[in-house]
Write a structure and sequence with these properties.
The chain is of the alpha+beta class and about 475 residues long. The protein has a domain of about 325 residues: Endonuclease/exonuclease/phosphatase (Deoxyribonuclease I, Chain A, 4-Layer Sandwich). The chain has ten helices and 24 strands. The strands form eight sheets. It has a six-stranded mixed sheet, with helices on one face. The protein has a six-stranded mixed sheet with strand order 5-18-19-20-22-21, covered by helices on one side. Strand 18 and strand 19 form a beta hairpin. Helix 1 runs parallel beside helix 2 and helix 2 packs across helix 3. The longest helix has 29 residues. The radius of gyration is 28 Å and the shape is globular.
């Protein structure tokens, strides 16, 4: 449990400070009671009605904490960090996405949880615009989970990189110069999305069309020709020649290359927008590898295409890794969790996650609501690689227990039906007013626009092991 000694009233506290401490403590009481009911209310033994033995189960979670933590819109309030720490404390291991370059807020969470009992392991920030300078982080309870010393960021080999639907392209800053064969023309589809700005009409989406056969291009300035070693040439008084006498064209083969100036070629063989993070852990009998991700979002058809490609390439790559791990250690299991930006369970992004023997446990699949604040998108998921058969001598298994998505906005920073008297909205009105945001949006920068998703895994297989020996 987190430490809240800072909330203890002091003699020198102003009346406003004392009131703030009292209000924050009251909301923490409500939040703690709600978390206990959400997790342990769902964790009753069906036969006895008693709470399940926590020593037999590991509770893992994934949570995208929106821009955690930037100074945008004034940064997070101290009480917001208390609420986040309280939520994290109810899980044994939690994967966090959107942790930003400045880790001071994360350090505060660990301090509140207790540095002796809690640790975290994080990546460096992912550079580039799609990467958004985000980190991937695992926070875990040392009393329950042990980091087993292997961690790494996932980078695809060149031959397996994610491909753009447009492939590599030539981008000439001075403008492409095409020579279209006489009599040929360019044809475009009838329905083209455009927008008008002043007296100009521009495309509002990328447009692709076939070029007529025989189209040529004028190479931009700065290009060079590379002739491959071993190429047959002829010597003249002026040097080496590769153009036959009387011909305007050089004789080039497959090994010769045109070298373009830097920035001219856009090679759309891509890595992941935000680098996935893979870490090994052990809890009780269960050894497992977790890979956390924040899949590319994008927009339009191209954004959705890349989103699907990232998910499929991820499952393909990790399935091969999981097979190798299974061959060397049958009691080591592979999980994939994070923000996949999946639109819904009937969408292609959901289907992409269920490729290469990865699957979402039934307990999570059956939850009707989504993991975003509006509860209408299945962005966040926890999946595992399913073995085709159980191997001889295997002592453990993937045995999933209860699962859920916790809606913290029903208890803190309330709005709408959860706060019919608008108490919270009035309480924060002054702080919200300084940001020019609406209250519903502002509160997502205090907590998140995603809700934490969790799943229980059995970690005690002692009875199974002993029974197998005693038979």
């Amino acid at each position: 449990m987190p430490f809240y000694s800072y909330l203890k009233p002091r003699a020198l506290d102003s009346p406003e400070r004392k009131a703030w401490k009292k209000t924050t403590a009251s909301r923490l009481v409500s939040l703690r009671a709600a978390l206990k009911e959400h997790i342990y209310g769902a964790g009753r033994d069906d036969d006895t009605g008693c709470e399940r033995n926590d020593n037999q189960w590991l509770r893992i979670a994934t949570w995208n904490i929106r821009e955690f933590d930037t100074r945008k819109y004034g940064g997070r309030l101290t009480e917001s960090l208390y609420y986040i720490a309280e939520i994290v404390s109810h899980f044994d291991l939690i994967a966090l996405q959107e942790v930003r370059e400045d880790t001071r807020a994360l350090e505060t969470i660990i301090r509140l949880l207790g540095r002796h009992d809690w640790s975290y392991i994080a990546t460096d920030v992912t550079e580039g615009r799609p990467g958004n300078r985000e980190r991937m982080v695992f926070v875990y309870n040392n009393k329950k989970v042990r980091f087993t010393n292997i961690a790494g960021e996932l980078n695809l080999p060149r031959e397996d990189r994610i491909t753009s639907p447009f492939g590599s392209s030539l981008e000439d800053p001075s403008g492409l110069k095409l020579h279209i064969p006489p009599g040929a023309s360019l044809s475009f589809p009838g329905k083209i999305k455009t927008r008008k700005a002043g007296d100009k009409v521009t495309l509002s989406e990328n447009l692709v069309t076939d070029l007529p056969e025989g189209t040529s291009i004028v190479l931009p300035a700065g290009c060079r020709l590379l002739l491959s070693r071993g190429k047959e040439v002829r010597r003249t008084e002026t040097g080496v020649q590769v153009m036959p006498e009387g011909s305007a064209y050089p004789v080039l083969d497959d090994n010769d290359k045109i070298l373009f100036p830097d920035g001219i070629i856009s090679e759309n063989a891509l890595q992941f927008a935000r680098t996935p993070f893979l870490v090994t852990f052990q809890a009780g009998w269960l050894k497992f590898i977790l890979c956390t991700v924040h899949i590319y979002y994008g927009s339009g058809r191209e954004g959705m295409d890349r989103r699907n490609r990232e998910i499929r390439k991820l499952t393909e790559f990790l399935a091969e890794r999981a097979k190798k791990e299974n061959d060397s250690d049958a009691d080591n299991f592979f999980f994939l969790l994070g923000d996949f930006n999946i639109l819904g369970k009937d969408h292609t992004t959901w289907q992409s996650l269920h490729t290469n023997n990865f699957m979402v446990p039934g307990q999570l699949e059956e939850i009707p609501e989504g993991s975003n604040v509006k509860r209408d998108k299945a962005y966040d998921q926890i999946a595992f690689w399913k073995r085709t058969r159980r191997r001889d001598g295997q002592h453990t298994a993937i045995d999933t227990g209860n699962a859920g998505i916790f809606d913290f906005f029903r208890y803190v920073f309330r709005y709408g039906d959860d706060d019919p008297e608008q108490e919270d909205e009035r309480y924060y009105a002054e702080k919200v007013g300084k940001t020019r945001l609406s209250y519903p949006t502002w509160r997502t920068y205090q907590m998140s626009d995603h809700l934490p998703m969790w799943l229980e895994l059995r970690i005690d297989f002692g009875d199974d092991y002993l029974e197998a020996i005693s038979e």
